Amino acid sequence: MRPQAVAAMLPYLTEHFGNPSGSHGVAREARLALDEARESVARDLGCEPGEVVFTSGGTESDNLAVLGAHRAREGAVICSSVEHHAVLRACESVGGTTVAVDPSGRLDLDALARSLSGEVSVVSVMLANNEVGTIQPLAEVVAVVRELAPRALVHTDAVAAVGWLDVAALARHADMVSVSAHKFGGPKGVGVLVVRNPAAIAPVMHGGEQERGRRAGTPDVAGIVGMAAALSAATALRDEQVRRVARLRDRLADGILEVVAGAAESALSAGERAAHDRAAKLASSFHVRFEGIDSEELLFLLDEAGICASAGSACASGALEPSHVLLAMGLTPSQARSAVRFSLGATTTPAEIDHTLDVLPKLVEQLLT
Which residues are catalytic? Predict the structure, then answer.
């Protein structure tokens, strides 16, 4: 967590303990903190305070967007084939369909156009992929939907994008935007769904009338205040962080591709130079495949060496099935099982990159012999 988030949360974990839904002085103090956090989040996400719905994180935000909009409007639901499971499974639960992507993980806009009609109620396309880092052409997606399915609401899962992209600008035309605090240095278990006026959604949890009736439940005041502080810091420091981390990412990627035989970078379109052209992906991630290697075995050895990496989404850790994202991009199950994702962030150091470049080639060689 960012130190700004920890400092902001501490008073609301101790002396300021009120429930913001109450009417007495202690409750009003909590309500004021909630209102100030809402205004701060709205500024950083490019929306109005009344359009901010506080949730328990990205999964709830995605479910509320897809299912809440579907319940309010009825009709078909469409999402890309590389969405996070929070969107994908919500879409599947109401009989929705998916739209194909190209080998880089970028949405096929022609396929999207063919799938649209006046019966569509929700279209969900993530701003950036959480596994391979591909940035989607969201403005073009919105334009196609507005033309061919004008009654549909457009939702974007921006969970992986905050801190690395200008979400306020890139998602400004989307009707709904999901974010999660832990992705930009806030606490786990807190998130936001932006629901722009006049879009309407039905609640998926029932109880009180919190969040203007769109999401029931007592708000986590400390978590929300921490999220607002983290988002403010992440927004202010974004350009500097992207430049620094992109340099580290490129050093890691170029070093691995140069030294490890059979290593192949994922999510590159035809014509892109694997070692150099990564402008269409998040600076925070490097996704690579090692021919002849089972990624689970490599990850075990990396962990023993003090290197934290993953085979796909952290939410799917331990899953036996290959990544649905990689399969949707056209990789075989065997290729998908050879893939490793290295994630970088605000705390990543050059020494950690050096350590990885020193250790990784030896581990790959060990597994191949």
Answer: 315
Q: What stretches of the chain show up as alpha helix (H) in DSSP?
A: 3-13, 25-45, 58-73, 85-93, 109-115, 138-148, 167-170, 221-259, 295-304, 324-328, 333-336, 350-368
Copy the structure tokens of residue 230. 């983290």
For residues 15-29, give the mean pLDDT.
Answer: 94
Say if residue 7 is in the same domain as residue 115.
Answer: yes
The radius of gyration of the chain's CA atoms, rounded to the nearest angstrom, is 21
pTM of the model: 0.95
The tens digit of pLDDT for each residue in 138-179 reads 999 999 999 999 999 999 999 999 999 999 999 999 999 999
Number of domains in the chain: 2
Q: Are residues 228 and 250 in the same domain?
A: no
Asked if 142 and 123 count as a contact pair (C-beta separation under 8 A), the reply is no
215 and 307 belong to one structural domain? no
- Find all residues with CB under 8 Å of 147, minimum gap 6, and list them: none
Query: In this predicted model, what pLDDT tens digit does every residue of 78-87 receive, in sequence order?
Result: 999 999 999 9
CA 37 to chain centre: 21
The answer to whether residues 184 and 42 belong to one domain is yes
- Tell me the C-alpha to C-alpha distance, in Å, between residue 357 and each of 118, 216, 301: 52, 48, 14
In a 3-state reduction of DSSP, which class is residue 207?
Answer: coil
Q: What is the pLDDT of residue 269?
A: 63
By residue range, what is the domain housing residue 155? 3-234
pLDDT averaged over every residue in the chain: 95
C-alpha span between 185 and 183 (Å, rounded)? 6
